[in-house]
Amino acid sequence: MLKGFFHVPKAVNEPVKGYAPNSPEKAAVQAAYTKMWNSKIDVPLYIGSEEIRTGNTKNMTAPHDHKHAVGTYHLAEKSHVEKAIANALEAKTAWANMAWEQRAAIFLKAAELIAGPYRARINAATMIAQSKNIHQAEIDASCEFIDFLRFNVEFMTQIYNDQPKSNSDMWNRLEYRPLEGFVYAITPFNFTAIAGNLPASAAMMGNVVIWKPSDSQVFSAQIIIEVFKEAGVPDGVINVVFGDALMITDTVLASSDFAGIHFTGSTHVFKDIWAKIGTNIHHYKTYPRIVGETGGKDFIIAHPSSNPRQVATGIVRGAFEYQGQKCSAASRSYVPRSLWPAIKEQLITDTKSMKMGSPEDFGNFINAVIHEGSFDKLAGFIDQAKKDGDAEIIVGGNYDKSVGYFIEPTIIVTTNPHYSTMETELFGPVMTIFVYEDDKWEETLELVDTTSEYALTGAVFSQDRYAIEQATTKLQNAAGNFYINDKPTGAIVGMQPFGGARASGTNDKAGSALNLLRWASPRTIKETFVTPEDYRYAFLGE
User: Fold this and answer.
1) According to a count of CB atoms within 10 Å of the terminal CB, is the N or C end of the chain lower?
2) 204-257 pLDDT, tens per residue?
3) Active-site residue, selected from the candidate residues 138, 327, 360, 425
4) DSSP letter at 530?
5) What is the pTM for the complete model shown?
6) Best CA proximity match to 468, nearest among 488, 454, 482
7) What does the DSSP assignment read for 396-423?
8) Does 327 qualify as catalytic in the annotation?
9) Does residue 143 have an active-site annotation?
């Protein structure tokens, strides 16, 4: 696309609303929450122009009140997945041939719908489905999702404007085609924004998509679908199926038209999918693009020069916001012995002050974990820590699933840097701390780098610039998103492109042009204006 041919609105980050007492935004989201809590919605499959209700349904419940059903959703059979693929391929030609600015307009409209008339509903749905307090819902379902849509349009125009050099006798240009086939998007429960962005980013570049949301996020995914429909995403461009993940994935990967996967979820599942793609590679029309963001065992390391209150705040925010269920959540920390008494005191005080309960009560900082499986896993590790001689729970350690899946924010201190909760991804509000000797700074950096298979996020706290430089260099492969004097969570689209390497994924940086490039297949076109008519070059002479 020629540079400057179109000018799209400059993307700016969506301001976060405060939801203060008596504010209109608080009243709006409370009203939406109450209405949706009692709505009992029925979510069909979305295939082409059809809403398909199979009659084979599952209940949607809130993690903080698991006996209360807020609706049902319908499960796909293999024939429905095959139908979704056929509908996507049928829609592909018209969508791929649509002028890019028309596609851009659709997703810019979607961003404005979320910023305005859908904001309270998508936040309330996220609070209910994923048990997020209003602040966590706002920065996710509204602000980050809006930012993904707006900035991706800007990134798309940057990509299209990137053109090769030409001379007076030739014109060189790049055409950014969508992939040949369809893209499969698998999205997680923990971020509504990710659930929307994974199918939308591929679609924005002209691709058609089969989207499978997490079973635990269908309630808020329904709002995303409504937004896309109102924004004008044509039928068949994004087809939505729910149900048995293995069956859906196997059916998708069996298609010769499978062209790529956009994935966020567990490392184990992603590796299995990669292996199946490899097994099927001779069957595909093109080499599939494999883009995935998986797990993390994210760290905080404090230097002896760091500010104890800042370290404590970084630990409790990084570990316990959204119950530690962010891919970027801190779950292991390394603290110098000289600062440990002050940090420990602040950690205990702050953690004990956190209220826990339903997100409907805006005074609750901690809500429920996503489902019983997660609850049971976390409870098991907490119980084991209570028994082990090399671990001590200094705050928290209680749990209750009688009403909702509530795990107290828990801090374990261990004398063993390889204790199980220092190495195992838990995805919950459990932080494990190893206290190191002040003169073991360099050895501890080595420990941080080599302890985990993951490399998603990490943070260093220090007032010593030499120590900061040393940590930044030593830990360059330990975290795709590295933070200096801040918690390792809260990446903002357009500011901190997100993604990690090692077992944490392919590091294709959602929230940047790098990710969108994965959904384009460039074609170079060279046009010669005066074509030679003799094969002889000058070196041959006359």
Assistant:
1) C
2) 999 999 999 999 999 999 999 999 999 999 999 999 999 999 999 999 999 999
3) 327
4) S
5) 0.96
6) 482
7) ---EE-SSS-EE--EEEEES-TT-HHHH
8) yes
9) no
